[in-house]
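Hi W., the 1-deoxymannojirimycin complex you wanted:
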Amino acid sequence: MNVYKRFARRTVLGALGSAGALGVLPPRLASAKSGFDWHKLALDVRGEMAWAWRNYVERAFGHDQIKPVSGTAEEFLLSTGPGLGLSIVEALDTLYVMGLDSELEEGVRWIKNNLHFDIDGELQVFEANIRMVGGLLSGWLATKNKHLLELAQDLANRLLPAFAKSPTGMPYRFVNLKTGAVRDPASYPAEIGTYISEFGTLSRAVGDNRYYDAAKKAAKGCFDQRSSIDLVADNIDIETGKWLSRRASIGPPSDSYFEYLYGGWRLFGDADFKNWYDVHAKAIAAYQIEILDGRLWFTQVDFETGARLDRHQSELAAFYAGLLGKAGDMEHARAYLNSWADVQARFGVLPEGFDYGTFAATRSTNELRPEFVDSCLALFVHSGDEHWQQLARIHYENMKATSRGPYGYTIIDDITTKPMKQGDACPGYWWAEQMKYYYLLFSGTNRFNYKRNYLSTEGKILDGLR
Ligand code: DMJ
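Structure:
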């Protein structure tokens, strides 16, 4: 199928200069019914973003991540460097929707002068795609700066050997950017099936179907190995197609595989993806839903028998409420996100791991996670219900109270101590995800199309920028 022919290109605003003409302050949100001043809260989020950006520029510019407590820097993508400006690439479209235009220009300038991928080093294919390919693409969509698109394509070209060298089309986990050498065939649904949104967008932009085809073949490779009850386990050998585990979960390391089955349909109208999504969604609803104490959860089960394995929930699984809402199952979406709202009410800040049987934390860290607010945004956009804004407001206020360090926002090493014990890291997704979600939830900005949009698993706006 010629994916890029199917779509009329959206009209997006051109250069940064003309985008600035829209006005940088958000208009008041029409939907506010409670009289709550969402406009003020949106300005607060924007102010925090600008403050954190300035600290990053002054102390860590070009490095992948700032360490917001010590004010030092660290790399994430290539552990021994060089830094690939990860936080810059992650932040691009967030800066754009917030109208932080001079900061956006500063970031694009760093990329133009410094970023290239001709490096004898290994990247994790999944992370490189969702963070860098996706970030460069949404940065291109926001600014129309062609160089960002060229860089996205160059990086995707260097990731392709991970797909091409695989006997099944499911990618190896690591690839050397210069030599194309690959390694690690023991992979996971998320690392196999989270490419179509970025690779498809790239195919459409440059008129080359290779990226779309590689992403689709990889997702199909995983789908084809589903059990007779239509579930996938969470660890597979991509060379043989043999499962290495029996555990089916909506959480990591499977999570965004499901998200991108829906994405392939939503972005490209590809009915195969819709079918694959529906098959899994039906099986997940049939075998994994458990209602306990009036709350709805998705339990872990054996992928062939459906027998329950455990009641553990990773915080990352909260994304599934938003996915259900986008795909039209608002009933389960609402119930599941409200279950997570009770966890937020119990702990203030969501723990990394949680057991819904005991309602106790199983991992008491918090890696500055965005999934709960991701789902709040999805359900708000779908329903206009202020309830989801209020839950996100609590999330934001709690983050501000506990994660704000001297030079930015940080992870928390223990959410059960009083005060909570801060760590010293600001993951790249903080710039791409929750700060954008809060702002979109509170601002009603005219740079975002609330009626028709698509955000990737890393929060990149691949459709809906205005
Ligand atoms: C992000 O990098 C992406 O959302 C990914 O799909 C999994 N979760 C992290 C943030 O928690």
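The radius of gyration is 21 Å.

W.
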